[in-house]
Backbone:
């Protein structure tokens, strides 16, 4: 593997960091209780002239309330961030809390009222009894941002979607679904196809459970395009679109429907890891909703990398974990620097062939998470390049996302940019306008090194991973998962 290792100057000075110094990067897991008013960031290097627009982020930010805390990284109350690139070399930053029902109630009572991914619903027995009559699903959209029909939305893994203004970051309100579809679980990652249509997958619980593929418009009118009956739905974080299909992976971490109604437990406690039953991969035709399915080994997948048609086959590349990774991301464990193998998911291909009962599995180069591709190239399929966040392997003592990698499928070459004593999260790919090459653009990478005063956004050349600019923010942006680019 060819490695290009560039050292962050500030972090290099801290190479021999003390234990206290090493805690520096873990400030990204501490609660941030104040939003930040608009302020100019300090820019080093030269930003591309064409980079005009805003990087939007919506990570968890408040884990500690007055009387109790959230137990898991994924559960903190959402803070929206905007880094606006004015096109003259300037970047202006501000943040604003998402005004969700969960945030209002949990803040006022000082405890996690709606629970979370691995935080139980607060309030003991009475609250749990109430939960039976009115199951609480959080609207804390701290995971993904999407644009549906021009409307910006913040998502978590429920059907409660919050709308917000991408300029002011003001919360507009909850999207009220205009249909009668009851889909309490929805993937946190919607997909947008090449025609700009917004798609998502939800789960309907009942005597028989179903995955339901929907398309929707900004008024909240969902249209069910297909349903797939399953005895116990698998954990659902995302799905993938190819040019002609929606690809749904039925994870072997399977929901217990009654627990969703009666337990009031954390989200993760509603699932059982059942590897013996294996998994299923489903391909839904976007044209007519017909479904084809294949057996697969037991899967635990958050993110797809890409999907495309290859002759009569469908190819689906995934970031594959060997088991649920709930405890790895417990907030206290992360604050203490606990290692995370989940930053190094196995890049794995499944080939779905007509007439075959089972998907054909192929190992691909690279171990990573939070993948990015040029979506235009991926929807035309296949994308040649993959960018992602990764970590040193356990032998080297790696513990968390600390590097950006680029995979070239044509050569299987992986280029790597590691940051010493730092965390480096998802590299958001922003294509250059009128780009001729698939990798013509930049990567926007949220980093925090031990000696950094605040978070630093690295602007990398997507072709070479060379750093073009670094944007110093006046605050530590709590670590989140995904960003989105809003064009000027
Ligand atoms: Fe995700």
Residues:
């Amino acid at each position: 593997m060819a490695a290009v290792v560039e050292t962050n100057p500030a972090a290099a000075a801290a190479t021999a960091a003390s234990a206290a110094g090493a805690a520096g990067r873990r400030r990204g897991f501490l609660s941030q209780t104040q939003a930040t008013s608009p302020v100019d960031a300090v820019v080093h290097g030269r930003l591309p002239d064409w980079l005009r627009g805003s990087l939007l982020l919506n990570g968890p930010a408040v884990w500690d309330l007055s009387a109790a805390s959230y137990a898991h990284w994924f559960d903190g109350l959402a803070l929206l961030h905007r880094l606006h690139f004015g096109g003259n070399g300037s970047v202006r930053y501000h943040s604003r809390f998402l005004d969700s029902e969960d945030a209002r109630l949990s803040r006022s009572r000082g405890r996690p009222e709606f629970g979370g991914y691995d935080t139980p619903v607060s309030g003991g027995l009475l609250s749990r009894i109430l939960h039976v009559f009115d199951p609480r699903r959080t609207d804390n959209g701290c995971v993904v941002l999407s644009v549906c029909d021009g409307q910006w939305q913040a998502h978590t893994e429920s059907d409660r979607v919050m709308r917000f203004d991408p300029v002011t970051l003001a919360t507009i309100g909850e999207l009220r679904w205009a249909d009668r579809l009851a889909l309490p679980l929805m993937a946190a990652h919607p997909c947008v196809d090449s025609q700009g249509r917004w798609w998502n997958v939800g789960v309907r619980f009942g005597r028989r459970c179903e995955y339901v593929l929907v398309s929707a418009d900004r008024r909240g009118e969902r249209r069910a395009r297909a349903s797939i009956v399953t005895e116990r739905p698998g954990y659902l974080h995302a799905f993938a679109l190819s040019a002609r299909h929606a690809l749904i992976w039925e994870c072997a971490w399977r929901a217990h429907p009654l627990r969703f109604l009666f337990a009031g437990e954390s989200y993760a406690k509603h699932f059982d890891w059942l590897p013996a039953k294996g998994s299923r991969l489903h391909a839904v035709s976007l044209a007519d909703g017909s479904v084809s399915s294949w057996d697969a080994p037991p899967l635990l997948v958050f993110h797809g990398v890409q999907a495309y048609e290859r002759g009569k086959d469908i190819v689906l590349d995934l970031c594959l974990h060997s088991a649920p990774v709930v405890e790895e991301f417990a907030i206290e464990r992360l604050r203490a620097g606990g290692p995370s193998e989940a930053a190094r998911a196995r890049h794995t291909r499944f080939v779905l062939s007509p007439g075959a009962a089972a998907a054909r599995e192929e190992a691909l180069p690279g171990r990573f998470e939070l993948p990015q591709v040029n979506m235009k190239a991926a929807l035309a399929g296949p994308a040649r390049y993959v960018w992602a966040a990764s970590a040193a392997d356990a032998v080297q003592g790696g513990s968390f996302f600390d590097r950006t990698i680029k995979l070239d499928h044509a050569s299987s070459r992986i280029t790597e940019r590691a940051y010493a004593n730092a965390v480096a999260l998802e590299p958001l790919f922003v294509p250059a306008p009128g780009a001729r090459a698939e990798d013509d653009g930049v990567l926007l990478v949220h980093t925090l090194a031990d000696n950094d005063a605040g978070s630093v956004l690295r602007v990398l050349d997507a072709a070479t991973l060379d750093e073009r600019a670094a944007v110093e923010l006046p605050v530590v942006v709590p670590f989140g998962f995904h960003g989105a680019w809003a064009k000027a």
Remarks:
- The two ends are 38 Å apart (CA to CA).
